[in-house]
Amino acid sequence: EMSLSSTGSPDTTSRRRRPAEHAQGERHDSPVKRYLQPFLGYFLIVGPSHHACEDSWEESQNKKTIRAENEVEANKLVNNYRFGFRKWKSHVTERPFEGRSDVVKELYSELNVIKPHSGHFITCGNLAYVLLFGWWVSLAYFLVGTLMFITVTGVPYGSMIVKDIFLVVFLQMGNTLRRCCERAPDCECSMEAEEDNSPFLLPSPTEVPVPEMPDRPLRTPYWRRFATYVWLLLGYPPLVVVHSLACFISWILVFTIPVFKMNARTLGVILLLPPEDVSISHQGYETRALLCCYHAANWYYYKYTIDGINVFAANLLPLVIVALVTGYIDRENKYASSDVKFTIAIGSIIPLSYYIGMGIASISAQSNFAVGAVVNATFGSITELTFYITALLRGHQKANTCLEEVVKAALTGTLLGCILFIPGICMIIGGLRHSEQRFNSRSAGVSCALLFISIGGVFAPTLFSKAYGNLVCDSCTNSSGANSTSNSSGPFVCHNCHYDLVGIISQEDTLPLVYTVCALLPVAYIIGLLFTLKTHSHIYNIHVGEVQVSGHHGTVVHWSRWRSLVILILATVLTSACADLATEHIQPILSQPNISQYFIGVTVLAMVPEIPEIVNGIQFALQNNISLSLEVGSCIAVQVCMLQIPILVLFNAFYDVGFVLIFSDQHLWASIFSVILVNYIFMDGKCDYFQGTALVVVYLILLAQYYFAPSPAGC
């Protein structure tokens, strides 16, 4: 039995007769297999004969055929389908630029090449540019130009600024100018105004570079002019500030990176040229384009990467420095309040979590299966564990039991978010684009089974306490106002009631059960790894064949193994520092009278570190790979129960921080109900936006319960 899929049609001219020495071993292969085997870059799925009768038609439809540019990327893609491995969407190697789409090529193109353009210049992005940048940049140019005129010697620079730049923003309407320059104060082109049938003005599917400038008449060298030093001392510095500010704002906004490129090139190249070398549409010697831009915004810049790092993650990285500086230097909250410090610290965990995920994916893709499994098990939960242990330590030092309840709420919130929200939002977005999506129901069934085992093990001590514990209340009063110590009769109203292990058994008697559960859960996790990765790996229907190696210099990885390891260690240390600051300044957040501490734990503390995983899941769903989207949430939820909670219990055994593996009723029933619901959704191997909406609505209902719930004991 064989299933085949590819992204392109094979070249029929590349067929050739096989050598005779191999013909005997391939005599029984099908003609399709013999036809396609010589081709590189295609993955064939050949199932053994003894599985032919067991595989159903639906399973054969779910077989995955993947294609990668090189062996490292192929390893990363296969790791995505492995249980226990972190799912990662971004590439870990450099992609061949020639094979990228025109949209992506446009993101990395320079602005000194004249490109054909068709369409309107009045767009939403250009109008936003005028409102956000154009008016105050042009005002700065006008003031600097006026200053240059006052100095007399700087008149050439003043003329360049006012006439050739400032007027472009509002007044210039020439056809040749519209071909080469967007209406912006920093967008000038040094090119000859040629006829409309010139090569670089004609519509063409490719970019046409302009020939070099011819020889010019002799003139005074640039650095021997007095006007040059007047410009560099009086005119250039203010524009450095203006363009630097414009660069910063446009880079942070991401979608306006073309404005960043324009300002950077203007500041670094154009403003340092002699005035006579810069013109817009004048006849002369100039035939070389200095700057050419049509649009100030491009909505596809969310795909922009820097050394393999997404631009959003790169922009959020300075938050780490801000969090450390404000947190450890401003101890007395003179410049920033505790609320601000907490927000910055918790936000800085987002890029650190992204860098940790990139490091894990890079090492796993460049290593064998054993190393990848160890790295994923070691660093896969490091972000959450760092925060939980830091919070427990700080709560123990301050004798604040509220932080323990917040940690339990964060653990439960991670479970609920990964079981309900991540699959739900991926189903909605993927369903809106692809109507109905199919996934491997058998592999999803394995994940659901592990979820049942996880939830049953984690909440076993809680059920044990409810079966053999006593209901204890802080205060009880009857209708007449008498307290519980009086002899009055009638119905009592009790507050802050909870099950406590007193009377029948003590809390120490539950420790053997807790330790037994925490020993069995990792064992179940290891068995799940062996089942899905070794003995029954065929249920994922992912097999690796030959890959196509692009280029002549081999594969170029963004991060080597040693670099990835160093970044992992550094990101872990920074995560610990940011988690320490977040727990130090969390108390004002917990003291809000209108918000339950449960709600803060199950939302902010639970889901903020998982934002990179949510983005990965959504990207998989948009590519019609809903199987990986569902595995993203299931993998995290299983790791929370089978790895993170046992590690917390083990840590508490060596250093008692008061962590007791007994959850509140709301945590218990919310988790159990969520697992049952998601198991029902995953039964048929199909999903759409309606099923995703059901999961998200249930998640929001549970969040509403936590929002209106009373504060836990000790808070």
TrEMBL record:
Question: Could you name the Gene Ontology cellular component terms for this entry?
Answer: endomembrane system; vacuolar membrane
Q: How does it sit in the membrane?
A: Multi-pass membrane protein
Region called Disordered, residue ranges: 1-29
Query: InterPro entries given for it?
Result: CaH_exchang (IPR004713), NaCa_Exmemb (IPR004837), NCX_ion-bd_dom_sf (IPR044880), YccF (IPR005185)
Keywords, comma-separated and alphabetical: Antiport, Calcium, Calcium transport, Ion transport, Membrane, Phosphoprotein, Transmembrane, Transmembrane helix, Transport
Looking at the record, the residues that make up the Inner membrane component domain are 124-163
Polar residues: compositionally biased ranges: 1-12
Keyword Electron transport among record annotations? no
- Which Gene3D superfamilies does this one have? NCX, central ion-binding region
Q: Which GO terms describe its molecular function?
A: calcium:proton antiporter activity
Where in or outside the cell it occurs: the entry states: Endomembrane system
Domain Sodium/calcium exchanger membrane region stretches: 342-459, 564-704
- Listed Basic and acidic residues bias regions: 20-29
Transmembrane region(s): 127-150, 229-255, 309-328, 340-357, 369-389, 409-432, 444-464, 513-533, 628-651, 657-682, 689-708
Q: Does the keyword Transmembrane helix apply?
A: yes
Q: Name one GO biological process term.
A: intracellular calcium ion homeostasis
Q: What is its main location?
A: membrane
Write down a Pfam family by its short name. Answer: Na_Ca_ex
Protein's UniProt name: Putative cation exchanger C521.04c
Native organism: Pundamilia nyererei
